[in-house]
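User: Here's a structure from my thesis project, written as structure tokens. My advisor, Dr. K., wants to see whether a designed sequence matches the one we expressed. Can you design one independently, without my sequence as a hint?
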């Protein structure tokens, strides 16, 4: 009898743990221990993060074009060049130094970088490099000096017509500004002065906006942008796996306990309601018999 009680107790505990593990996996396994990677100086980010800057960030809405073919042929073409490459490197830190040296040799420079470390202490990161437009392709061809180039792509966007159109708009607006300035000097009433100043404010705001865009195009067409992603290869380590199995066992235990707590939170209110209902029914029957 005593042995049967012990056996039933052990089976009951096993069933509770298994139920808890199932419920814990169902509700919590994806959120209790999310894998983390270290970004920069200790900032945690979700595993698998790849923060490569998207070249579409430079896309702008098309403007109406007024430039003629003669205007376009009369100046140097304006080309926005972008490229990206994934490179496998043996040593991340040494490769960053190589990129700096390589960029300098082509007259370019690094504008941004980040690094993260995986759970297995493998370093990965992104480097953004600016390269003079006329040496952009040559720089892309030399990336094999850094490591094994897994993938590479480049794009070129001709913005010559937009550039000429912006210059024409600025020229027209400055002519308008000059005429309104003359009118302002001849205005004789406060109402005329205020009306002219409103128009001058609008014109000067548009000029500033177009000039900012022209400056942006000057910068992006003078230098192309290369986005480099560096990845160290995963180390192949032969081990017994006891530590990993032990950690997984602890995770499974914690998930089981969490599942039991969730199960308890679900069953306890039911048990309380069932108990109350039982005593209510018992009380009613007792009163009925009397």
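Assistant: Designed independently from the structure alone:
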């Amino acid at each position: 009898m005593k042995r049967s009680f012990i056996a039933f107790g052990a089976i009951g505990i096993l069933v509770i743990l298994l139920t808890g593990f199932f419920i814990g996996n169902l509700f919590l396994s994806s959120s209790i221990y999310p894998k983390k990677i270290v970004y920069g100086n200790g900032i945690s980010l979700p595993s698998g993060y790849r923060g490569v800057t998207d070249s579409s960030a430079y896309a702008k809405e098309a403007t109406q074009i007024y430039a003629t073919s003669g205007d376009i042929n009369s100046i140097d073409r304006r080309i926005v060049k972008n490229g990206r490459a994934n490179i496998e490197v043996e040593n991340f830190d040494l490769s960053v130094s190589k990129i700096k040296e390589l960029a300098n040799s082509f007259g370019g420079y690094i504008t941004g970088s980040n690094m993260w470390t995986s759970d297995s202490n493998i370093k990965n990161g992104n480097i953004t490099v600016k390269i003079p437009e006329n040496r952009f392709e040559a720089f892309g061809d030399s990336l094999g000096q850094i490591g094994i180039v897994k993938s590479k792509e480049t794009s070129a966007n001709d913005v010559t017509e937009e550039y000429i159109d912006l210059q024409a708009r600025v020229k027209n607006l400055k002519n308008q500004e000059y005429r309104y300035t003359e009118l302002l000097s001849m205005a004789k009433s406060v109402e005329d002065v205020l009306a002219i100043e409103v128009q001058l404010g609008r014109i000067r705001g548009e000029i500033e906006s177009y000039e900012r865009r022209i400056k942006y195009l000057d910068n992006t067409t003078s230098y192309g942008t290369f986005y480099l992603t560096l990845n160290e290869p995963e180390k192949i380590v032969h081990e017994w796996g006891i530590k990993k199995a032990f950690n997984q066992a602890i995770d499974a235990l914690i998930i089981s306990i969490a599942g039991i707590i969730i199960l308890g939170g679900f069953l306890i209110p039911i048990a309380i309601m069932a108990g109350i209902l039982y005593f209510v029914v018992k009380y009613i029957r007792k009163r009925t018999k009397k």
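When you compare it with your expressed construct, this may help: The helical segments are 2-27, 29-32, 69-73, 92-105, 136-141, 160-186, 190-222, 242-289.
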